[in-house]
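Obj: model holo form, ligand = adenosine-5'-diphosphate.
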Amino acid sequence: MTIRRLPETVINRIAAGEVVERPASVIKELVENSIDAEAARIDVTIRDGGRTFMSVTDDGRGMTADELSLAIERHATSKLPSDDLLTINSLGFRGEALPSIGAVARLAITSRALGEEDAWIITVEGGTVGAPEPAAHAQGTRIEVRDLFFATPARLKFLKTEKTEQTHAVDTIKRLAMAHPGIGFTLGDGNRDLLKLPAATGPDARLDRLSGVMGKDFRDNSLAIDAQREDMRLTGFAGLPTLNRGNSMMQFLFVNGRPVRNKLLYGALKGAYREFLASDRYPLVALFLDLAPDAVDVNVHPAKTEVRFRDAGLVRGLIVGAVKHTLAEAGHRASTTVSETALGAARPEGLGGGYGGGTYRGGGGPTYGGGATGLRERADAFHSPLPGLDAQPSAPAPADLGEDIADYPLGVARAQVHETYVVAQTRDGIVIVDQHAAHERLVQERIKTALDTGGVQRQGMLIPEVVELDEAAASRLVARAAELAELGLVIEAFGDGAVVVREIPALLGETDIKGLIQDLADDFAEFDEGLALTQRLGDVCATMACHGSVRAGRRLNGDEMNALLREMEATPHSGQCSHGRPTYVELKLADIEKLFGRR
Ligand code: ADP
Ligand code: MG
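Output (holo structure tokens):
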């Protein structure tokens, strides 16, 4: 056996295996270098998903000829001046990226340093380093990477389709751009622009940049977060629950300015939105956590996208607490996307789309043009009144409303339609309330208040009700009997595989007991056994409320309707039901007028 030192090229290829996984990792390293070089503008090109060609051009500090030679040496970095790994302030620090890329691709770096007259170019092809040569270039650096993995063909096989690789690269740039609103970014594929984010300045710079990436709706439907705990600070924006998606792609966390992926974020957001959103819907959130560099380890993985917190519990608590608090303060606000979608659906050509699979699109809200006259013409086609508009005469006459309307955000009830929707008149528009969804939310909030103020009132059943379940479900319920009793629900085991219900929370009123018990059993199957019910209170309340609420289909009189509106106004979170669906939609007169071509 002979032990030998590996040649530099082999070492670099091994390192490349960790740092350079795919085109997006090259883009990440190069763009981070440009950010570290204090660039004001970064232009990126990717061809064929990055496989044949990538370039990153910046107007940053640049490098001299000597620095160029050093930059492509392994573990050569300008970013660890004090050799202290615990206090890292730049994005790079390992000094591995450039030599690794040079080991597996054809790399060319052209650069002109600040204050220098001449630019230089240096090339590395599959690990073979050339000498710096004079070149022509403006101040800053341009790095070109061709034929990625030509030197390690086995790696090529692991690349996905061009489209997939491109998507990863775009995602990488977006994340870095979100953390650096002051830098202008462009990305093209050689033929067209894929991304154009002008430098954002001023007090709203961050939100400008975030909505540039996350969509225009995010600007109008997000709440600013700002919270501090010990020496950690959390800022950023959390979307209203009604603005949600089917996956967590739009949930971002930045730690000390660095985009990271951390499971803790997804869990914490689930916790914070639990009471407002169905478990398969995901809010849009971008959070920025700043903490002492020694409270977080960014050196977990060479690509630095993973972090480890010294006190993960504290971080989680800060995120859950801050987001919950901010959502609570937003009160009954529902997102504008909901009314935009409603208006979109009402538009004659069906512009803007409807509620697609629970996703509130409405984004980009097409400006209202030719369609307006279309509606008027079309209206002539209706000779008879629309069916189903059986407005209840029980609502108060408009004359009595006067001042009231101005005072109440949700207005004064004017009618109930289809025994399901309450229509109210506000100062400058109308509000349509889904009475069932609203009730569900109100009951849930009442249970919580009752718990906080001395317990939930119970109501005994005249005839106790027996509910058959499977054995496992029954024993899960019985195991929680004491906790359920605190919430006002008294159950006991009834043989194997059944429970008997003796008392229910008084405020539920008429209740579908069988459905309630079955759903609770389902809930418990998903809960962590070690978790107290109060920690899942939102879920339990939501389930109870859902079976006890006034369902759609009950007639309400004017007083009942107005009472509902007033209670909604006074109740936090009443803008959405516990599944993240809106409880009401507001349409402004101005928008309605547009709909009829009056504006
Ligand atoms: P690291 O970023 O970890 O220091 P890299 O291999 O990515 O390691 O880069 C090595 C060095 O090259 C950096 O420390 C920096 O001094 C220099 N460098 C790389 N890219 C640029 C750039 N775009 N502008 C100016 N200097 C750069
Ligand atoms: Mg670097």
